[in-house]
Amino acid sequence: MTRLSTTLRGLVTALAAVLAVTAVPATAQARPEPRAPEDFVALRSVDPTIIEEMRYVTAHNFVGERVDGYRQSLCILTRPAAEALHRAQTRLLRQGYSLKVYDCYRPQRAVDHFVRWAEDLDDQRMKAEFYPEVDKTRLFADGYIAEKSGHSRGSTMDLTLVRLPAKPTRPYHPGQTLVPCFAPQDERFPDNSVDMGTGYDCFDTRSHTLDPRIQGAQHANRMLLKNTLEDVGLVNLPEEWWHFTYKPEPYPDTYFDFPVSAKSLAGRR
User: What is d(CA 56, CA 67) in angstroms, rounded to the nearest whole number?
Assistant: First the structure.
């Protein structure tokens, strides 16, 4: 009887240990996702007229798949940055244009995804469109990929201009033939934006805002975007005609990692 009791006690103890171990991951999974600070907003709540084509929630980007952290097609920004875009949009609408955003706040987990992709030299599926003349081994050295992004601070956005009335953009189908991002506009992937000389996220020096090879209407379109946004407090990154940051940034040293989703903003007005 004593031996049986000892055996049962041993089994109970072992089962309790197993349950304790298996309970740890469940607790970790139940940990709530980080939320956006109170002064982050959905751009559409500030200006619903700005067109949103959030590329990283789709497969049409240099990675070739939905990027980690992008749960919904939603532009999230700090309120001052969103209000600056609203002021710019008001001016542009009077001239027959609209802003279109490709990316806004970007979680750190998305940046980590970019880094993993850049380190995987075998993954070249989107090279023909986004970096046709750049060796993938050079993406870090040439500054196209970095371990931190200003987007994660919440006041940086990627955007372009669309001539109104806006035409629909056909969907991207994975596996379709890719065309270099600096090809003539009528040969590139169709985008309803004005001709900026390259497509969005084109890893090429032609994307430098003031690249001397970009002339005529293409240069004028870049200057209209740049000058309009600079007038409302947004600063252009010279290496990317589409990249702007609101200054002064509310969070100049903080890199957030909450997901791009309405839940991250739940309860906001």
Answer: 5
